[in-house]
Amino acid sequence: MNKKLVLAASVLGLSAIILGAFGAHGLKKILTADELITFETGVKYQMYHALFLLFLASNTLVSESAKKVIFYLVLPGVLFFSGSIYLLATNNATAIDFSYLGPITPIGGLLLILAWGKLFVAVFSKK
User: In Å, how far from its chain's centre is CA 109?
Assistant: First the structure.
C-alpha cells in the first residue's frame, strides 16, 4: 500500500506543478484574475493531498486497511474537486460548457473531508 501511496502522491504532485505553471504562464492572458485564482485553488488542493498521501505512506500509526480507505477517498476526491475546478475556471476560455460539473466539486470536497476524518478516527482509535 505504501508504494501505491507514494506513486499516487508523485503523480498528483508532478501534475500539480505542471498545472500550476500552466495556469501561471499559459492561462495568464486567457483567464480573468478571478478565474486564475479559482484555477490556483484546484492546484493548491491537489498539492495538499499529494503531500497528505506522502505523509500517510510514512505514518506507522495508521493501519494498512485505513490507509487503503483513505487512498480510495483521496484519489476520486482530488479528481472531482480539483478536476472540476480546473474545468470550471477555464469554462469561458473553451468552446465546451463545463457548468454542469458544478455539483461534482462539493462531492470531491466531501470525499477529501471523509479521508481526513478517517485519518483522525484511525489514529484516535489506535491503542
Answer: 9
For the whole model, what pTM was predicted? 0.91
Buried b (16+ CB within 10 A) or exposed e, 15-51: bbeebbeebeeebeeebeeebbebbbebbebbbebbe
Domain boundaries, the chain: 2-124
DSSP H helices in the chain? 2-21, 33-58, 64-89, 104-124
Give the CA angle between residues 107, 79, 16 to the nearest 5°: 130
User: CA 89, CA 68: separation in Å to the nearest integer?
Assistant: 31
**Residue 127's pLDDT band (cuts 50, 70, 90):** confident
Question: How many Å apart are CA 103 and CA 74, to the nearest integer?
Answer: 18
Return the pLDDT at 93.
84
Distance (Å, whole) CA 11 – CA 117: 23
Of the pLDDT bands very low, low, confident and very high (cuts 50, 70, 90), residue 97 is confident
